[in-house]
Amino acid sequence: MHKKSIFTILGVMLAVIVASLSLVFAVGPRVSADSEVVLNLESHFTINGSHQLTGISDAGKSLINGKKFRVVIPSSVTSIGGWAFSSCSNLTSIKIPSSVTSIGYNAFDYCSGLTSIEIPSSVTSIGVHAFWGCSGLTTVTFAGNSQLTSIGDNAFSYCRGLTSIEIPSGVTSIGNYAFEGCSGLTHIRCEASEKPDGWNDNWLGDCNPKIVEYGYVAPQDTNNQETSNTVTENNKFNPLMAWVGCGIAAGLSVICGVAIVVAKKRRK
User: Fold this and answer.
1) Bridge partners of 9?
2) What does the pLDDT look like over 18-31, one tens digit per residue?
3) What would the pLDDT profile of 163-176 be if each residue is shown by its tens digit?
4) What is the per-residue pLDDT across 181-207, written as a single tens digit (0 to 9) for each?
């Protein structure tokens, strides 16, 4: 192979690599038009002087703009105020930090797109109508060593997708009709050995009392680690990045091959 040809090939492949890298920096990661928005900065929310999150800020609303969205509440927040996410039907998931101690009245009512939620152990109270009408909610999980003591009136009413729930042992108060209209409920597992005096006589609403199990022993969490299968914008398959990667890999392979050929010819 002539030296001129070798340098021509090397020049072409280097040009491919440079062009590919230029695309990465110029275009950046490709985000599909229907991808979910993530609200996770303090500026995305309205937070008062008492560190209570009271709603979504104008900056957050402009990001959502009719799209589905996920929420990661900043660790500076200590409580979620009344109506904070009321009627946010496009809300699909929310992560509540361990700094939060209370969830206010109607905080998530009519969030029909919400499918699951984990209540951290730091939360001591869930307010009246907090999750009223969350028809898509199928899973409510209370973290281990829960400090929860009270569940307000109608807190989970009309969560029709909910099939089971475990109530921590420390809950001493449940208000009227907390599970009214939860037509899908087949199991309510209570760690308390019997109904505490502070639970309202109508706490079940129209649910069948036969679905209640007292003295339930929750399985121990041996590793206490959170796992997530959430697909984020950073780990989605990106066709553009795949093409760029293939171009760079191909270019480097050819350069290495040419270098080997040159080295062999020099030895001869």
Assistant:
1) none
2) 455 454 444 443 33
3) 999 999 999 999 99
4) 999 999 999 999 999 999 999 999 999
Spatial distance between the Cα atoms of 158 and 4, rounded to a whole number of angstroms: 77
Q: Tokens 């089971």 label which residue?
A: 164
pLDDT score recorded for residue 257: 58
What angle do the packed helices 239-267 and 3-27 form, to 10 degrees? 160
Q: Which two tokens stand for residue 7?
A: 């340098």
**Residue 51 DSSP symbol:** S
- For residue 102, give the nearest of 127, 67, 68 by alpha carbon: 127
Per DSSP, the three-state class of 264 is: helix
Topology given in CATH for the domain delimited by 79-222:
3.80.10
- Tell me if 233 sits within 8 A of 6, measured CB to CB: no
Which alpha helices (H) appear in the chain, and where do they start and end? 3-27, 58-64, 239-267
Residue 43 φ then ψ, to 5°: -70, -15
**Per-residue pLDDT, 18:** 44
Q: Model confidence over 113-146: pLDDT tens digits?
A: 999 999 999 999 999 999 999 999 999 999 999 9
Strand locations in 85-238, DSSP E? Answer: 91-95, 102-103, 116-119, 125-126, 139-142, 150-151, 164-167, 173-174, 187-190, 212-214
Which two tokens mark 81? 């105020």
When pLDDT is averaged across residues 104-120 and rounded to a whole number, the result is: 98
Long-range contacts formed by 15-20: CB under 8 A, 24+ apart: 16/247, 16/248, 16/250, 16/251, 17/247, 17/248, 17/251, 17/252, 19/247, 20/244, 20/247, 20/248, 20/251
What is the identity of the amino acid at 14?
L
Q: What Rg, from alpha-carbon coordinates, does the chain have?
A: 27
What phi-psi label fits residue 133: left (phi over 0), alpha (psi between -120 and 50 degrees) or beta?
A: left
Counted residue by residue, the chain has a size of 268
In this structure, the strands spanning 212-214 and 52-56 are unpaired
